[in-house]
Model the fold of this input.
Amino acid sequence: MTDPPIRTRSDERRQTEQTESLEDADEREQCPECGGRLVSDTEHAETLCDDCGLVVEEGEIDRGPEWRAFDSAEKDQKSRVGAPTTKMMHDQGLSTNIGWQDRDAYGKALSSRQRQKMQRLRTWNERFRTRDSKERNLKQALGEIDRMASALGLPENVRETASVIYRRALEEDLLPGRSIEGVATASLYAAARQAGTPRSLDEISAVSRVEKDEIARTYRYVIRELGLEVKPADPESYVPRFVSDLDLSDETERRARQLLKTAKDAGIHSGKSPVGLAAAAVYAGALLTNEKVTQNDVGDVASISEVTIRNRYHELLEAEEGTAA
Done:
């Protein structure tokens, strides 16, 4: 027969405190008036009864952030606990990046031994960031997209869309038999057209490491296999950039848009290069508003020949005269 456990005074005090805390917790969870369930109203910093509406506590401390966000993108943008995730990096920006400054937190230069240690850490960090061939492929392609987008002056949303298109192509196994640079360039070309900030094939090929024919071929293959909906490029989307590069007035841009709208109504834009139509409209608009610009200047900006500008220029003016008549 075993002896009963010895209860000390401290054990009794501890048990009494636990019982009182449980009773207090029950009281805090129940309404003192009707015994209903208590809920917290964070907007008014109050605790009230869900049944009778009695306000039990008020003036509570809000332990959340001082800002409000209405969607996930705004929440990521305002959050101060790290950079938001992005599709423009192969690891979506979740890995650690060791800087190359070789300085400590106070700005002092590291010693020779510490620099060697940091160099070894950087080497291993880069190896761990790209663990397999797929991640190395993605890192190279996304770096190429970022380089070309910067050279073409494309906004961040286009780079993000191009990164998503390339990731889809990689997941769908569309890379075998095609170069990484070719698929990356085709993804950027498709993303720019989807965003309404298109660039011509000549402009894309000028900053790419791939020939123009391969870009066009890969682009058609990618949009067909991924089922991307890419509308034909609108000539008007090229006008603001051409006007800005030529330093022309807003009146010239307005006149060029009017000429293109008339050409669409007349149906002469079908089957013609949107870049050539936009360049001819800018040239015609400049002449109609008495601004000095040559066909050679417009051709250099739009990367097309003067012959194309002259041909489209006459077609636009004929459509304008036909509408006026």
User: Anything to note?
Assistant: The mean pLDDT is 82. The radius of gyration is 33 Å. Residues 43 and 162 are 40 Å apart (CA to CA).
